[in-house]
Amino acid sequence: MAFTQRDIISIRDFSKSDIENILKLAEKMEPVARSQEKCNILEGKLLGNLFYEPSTRTRLSFEAAMQRLGGGVIGFAEAGVSSATKGENLNDTVRIVAEYTDALVIRHKMEGTARFVADLVDVPVINAGDGAGQHPTQTLLDLYTMKRILGNIDDLHVALVGDLKYGRTVHSLAYALAMFEVKMSFVSPEELRMPREILHDLSNSGVYVNETANIHDVLDQVDVLYVTRIQKERFPDPKEYSKIKGAYLINSKLLNGSRAIVMHPLPRVDEISHDVDDTPYGKYFEQAFYGVPVRMALLKSLIK
Amino acid sequence: MAFTQRDIISIRDFSKSDIENILKLAEKMEPVARSQEKCNILEGKLLGNLFYEPSTRTRLSFEAAMQRLGGGVIGFAEAGVSSATKGENLNDTVRIVAEYTDALVIRHKMEGTARFVADLVDVPVINAGDGAGQHPTQTLLDLYTMKRILGNIDDLHVALVGDLKYGRTVHSLAYALAMFEVKMSFVSPEELRMPREILHDLSNSGVYVNETANIHDVLDQVDVLYVTRIQKERFPDPKEYSKIKGAYLINSKLLNGSRAIVMHPLPRVDEISHDVDDTPYGKYFEQAFYGVPVRMALLKSLIK
Amino acid sequence: MAFTQRDIISIRDFSKSDIENILKLAEKMEPVARSQEKCNILEGKLLGNLFYEPSTRTRLSFEAAMQRLGGGVIGFAEAGVSSATKGENLNDTVRIVAEYTDALVIRHKMEGTARFVADLVDVPVINAGDGAGQHPTQTLLDLYTMKRILGNIDDLHVALVGDLKYGRTVHSLAYALAMFEVKMSFVSPEELRMPREILHDLSNSGVYVNETANIHDVLDQVDVLYVTRIQKERFPDPKEYSKIKGAYLINSKLLNGSRAIVMHPLPRVDEISHDVDDTPYGKYFEQAFYGVPVRMALLKSLIK
Fold first, then answer.
1. Which of A117, A140, C124, C250 suits a disulfide with C302, CB 3.0-4.6 Å?
2. What pLDDT sits at residue C301?
C-alpha cells in the first residue's frame, strides 16, 4: 500500500481501492483492538495528538489505537494546556511537536487547519476534524461498520437522517458511499436538505439518490439509518424545532419490523431514544469501537 | 482467585478471604512497584481512567500501577476535557470508553455512579470514589499499610480520629476492619461521631469498639492513629471550629512515647503537623506508595 | 558517569566535563529520538511530570524522551488538575508522586521550587523552569544545538540578543558558555542590558565579552544569534516599545550575507520573522528537536 508518510486530510483524497485496503487491514487489526492478540509493530514510535478542541471519542480512540500497537502518545486535550496561552501560534506549536513525533493528529475548530498543518511539517498528518471541514477517519469507520455488520457495502441502501445541510459527517459519507454500488435516501426537514452541489456531484457519479422529509417513506427499504443531530440553533422558532425534532426521533417502536441498523457518529443528544441502545438495531457503540481498528490500520500504514 | 472481570464498587462486596488474597498479591507486586523488577503481564491492555472530579493521588497511582505492569492508560482528568461540554451524557461516554479498553476506573461526585456504570458495560469497573459513597481501593491500601508495617491486621487496636460522621473513608475502613480480630476506638468531637447505624452493625459483628472525644484517652493503647480532616464547613461557629481543630491536632509532641503509627488518606490540610512527616510515627507517604502495589494486584486480577 | 540519582537544578551545578558527557550521550540518543533505532533501557520506569505552569515544548519533549526509551510518564499539565484545588500543598503532592515514580520533572512559577523539592524527595529531580530561576535542560539543549550544527562550542562567537536583563535562559547560557573557549556579544536595548553581576562573573572567568545596543555591530562577526523576546510589559511607553522592537527584529533581509545561525528558546512572538523559518539561518525548530536527545541522555543517566 502506498500510504507511508501520506497525509489524511479529506475522504475525497482516497480512491475506492485505498478505502478497501484500509478496511481490509482494519479487519486484521480487530483481534489486537480487542486485546485478544498482541502487536508491537509501532514500539518506539510516537503520535502527537493536538486537540485544540476537546473530543472524547476521537482523541481516546487514537490513543487506544496507537497504544494497542505498542506506540506512545504525547499531546494536549484542549488548547488551554498548550503554549497557546503564552501567545504561541499554531504554526510554531505544530512544527515543534512534529519534531518530537512520527505522526500528528489534529483537531481544530477552523476549516482548512489540517491541510495547512500538513504543508508545514514532514511527518504524516491526520485530520481529526477541522470545523465545518473534513473528518475522514469518521467516514472510514462508518464504512467499516457497514461492511463488518452487513458483510458488504455494495448493494446497501443507506438513509442519511437529520441535519444534512450543515453536518460534515454526512457530506463526507455521501461522497464515500458514492464510490460503491449503493442506493442513498436523504431524510431531512425542508430547512436542512442536502446541499444542491453535493446532490449534483452524486448524480454525476451515477448513484441512486432520493430525498424525503418523511422517515416512514424509507423505513421498510433501507439497510442503514445513519442518524445525525438536528441542532436547536438552526431554527428561529422553538416551536418549529420541537415539532421537527419529534418527527425525526428514532425509537424502538418506530424501528419495529425494520431490517435497518441504526448508526450515529455520536455524541447524540436525544435524537435516538435510549430504548434502542440494547436492541439489535442500535449499533452506534459497536460503531464507536470500530474507530479503533480503523485508526490502527491508518497509523500502521502511515508511520514508516 | 475468582476476580476476573469482577467489578470493585464497595468494600462491602469483599469477603475476608478476597481481601487477604488481594493483600498477598500486592506484596508480590511491590518489587515491580519499586521498579526493582520488571513485569509485562498487562502488555497490550488498556485502562480507561474516567475522572469526572480531579484527584492527584488516586488517578496517578492507577496510572502508575497500570504502566508498571506494561499496560497503557487513556482517559481524562476532569470533566471539562470530556465531551460532557458538548452535552454528552455519562451513559454514552462510559459505554464508548469501555469499547476502547479492558477495564474502567471511575471517580464521580455523585453517589452510586460506579454501580450504575458497572451495570452498563461489559468490562470490569473500579470505583475510585463516588461522592459520599464508596472508595474501596483506599480501604484496601489502608489495610495493606497496616499489615505491611505492623505485620498483621489481627490483634491491632486502631483509632479512627477526626470527622467520623461524614468521612466515607473511615466508614469503609471500619466495616473492613470488623472482619478481622481488631479493637477500634472512635475519637471525634460530639458533633462528628460515627453514625449510630454503623456502630450498630459493628457491634453485631462482635468487634470491640469504644468512643471518646479525647485523643489522650487512647493514645497509649492504640497501634494506629488513622486521622481524617475536620472540615470548617461542618461548624456554624468559626470559634467552635478553631477550638475543636486544636484539640485534634496531631504533632510530634503529642505522639512522644506512643507506639502508634499515624496514617491519613490525604490530602491533609493542617490536622497533622509537618513535624511528624519524617519521624517514625508518620507513615502517610508510605501509605500513599502502597496504593500502587494494591492497585496493581487489583488490575492484574480483574483484567482477563 | 556519576550522574545516577543526582538532581538537575541549575546549570551552575555542572562541571564542563559533566556537560561534555551529557552532550556525547545525547549524540548516541539521536537515532532513537528519530525512531531510527529502538531502545528499551527505561522499560518499567516511570517519570513524574509536575507542570504547575503549562508548557508545550518542555513537557512534551520530556514525555517524548521518556517514551522513546521505553519508559512511562504520569503527572499533570497545569495546577488545576492536581489536588491543589483541594488545598493540598506542593510539599505533600510532590512527596506522593515521588513515591509512584523513578524521577520527577517540575515546573513552577516560583523561583527556588525545584531545589526545595529536591531536598524533600529521594528520587532525582529535574528543574524544568522555576520562575525567574533556572531551566538547566534548556541550556544543555542550547549547547548541544551549537555543537551539533557548528561542530564545536570552543571557538564560537555567540551573540545573545534581546532582553538580557530578565531572561533566565540567557543568564544560564552565558554562564555555561563561559566554561568554553568562546566570545560573547550581548546585544540589547539600554534598559535590558545583562545584569552587572553576571558581567562581573563572566569577566572573572576570563571570557571575551562585548556589549552593544546595535545588532549591526556584531552581525558579520558572530556564529550564533541567540534571540529572546522583548516583552511589552518592560516598557512604560508603548511608543518606546515599538521603536525598540523594530530595532531587534530578525528577518531574512537582515541576515543576508551573515554566517550566523539563528536560535531561540521559543515560544517566539514576532521577534523573528517567519521568512527566516525555512532558510538555512533558522535553526530554532531543529533546536527544539534536540531537546529530546538531550533529555533522553539526562533521564538515562539519572534513573537507576
1. C124
2. 96
Q: Phi and psi at residue B43, in whole multiples of 5°?
A: -55, 135
Q: Note the helical H segments in chain A.
A: 16-33, 56-68, 90-100, 113-120, 136-150, 168-177, 196-204, 238-247, 252-255, 284-302
A26-52 confidence digits (pLDDT tens): 999 999 999 999 999 999 999 999 999
By three-state DSSP, how is residue B17 classified?
helix
Q: How far is A176 from chain C (nearest CA, A)?
A: 34
Q: What are the phi and psi torsion angles at C262 (to 5°)? A: -105, 125
Report the gap between the CA of A289 and the closest CA in chain B (Å): 5
One fold for C11-134+291-302 and C137-287? yes
Which residues are bridge partners to B183 per DSSP? B157, B208
Neighbouring chains of B at 3+ CB pairs under 8 Å are A, C
B137-287, superfamily in CATH?
Aspartate/ornithine carbamoyltransferase (3.40.50.1370)
Nearest CA in chain C to A78: C77
Angle at C224 between CA C218 and CA C225, to 5 degrees: 65
| Assigned C-alpha cell, B140 | 484496601
**Inter-chain contact A266–B97, Cβ cutoff 8 Å?**
no
Q: CB B285 to CB C95 under 8 A?
A: yes
What are the start-end ranges of the E strands in C196-299?
A: 208-212, 224-227, 261-263
Q: Enumerate residues 28 to 87 of chain B having a beta carbon within 8 A of any beta carbon in chain C.
A: 32, 35, 38-39, 54-57, 60-61, 63-64, 67-68, 70, 77-78
Whether A63 has a pLDDT exceeding 90, the answer reads yes
* Touching B: C residues 154-193, CB under 8 Å: none
HSE at residue B70, side-chain half, CA atoms within 13 A, is 18
Of the candidates A68, A108, A135, A295, the residue annotated as catalytic is A135
- Write down the domain spans for chain B: 11-134+291-302, 137-287
Cell 522555576 sits on residue:
C130
The answer, yes or no, to whether residue C87 has pLDDT greater than 50, is no
Q: DSSP characters for A162-213?
A: S-TTT-HHHHHHHHHHTTSS-EEEEE--GGGPPPHHHHHHHHHTT-EEEEES
Rounded to two decimals, the pTM is 0.95
Spatial distance between the Cα atoms of A110 and A114, rounded to a whole number of angstroms: 9
Is B80 in Cβ contact with A56 (below 8 Å)? no
* A·C CB contacts under 8 A: 74
User: What class does CATH assign to C11-134+291-302?
Assistant: alpha beta
Dist CA B124 CA B4 (whole Å): 8
- Search chain A and give the residue with CA nearest C74: A74
Nearest CA in chain C to A77: C77
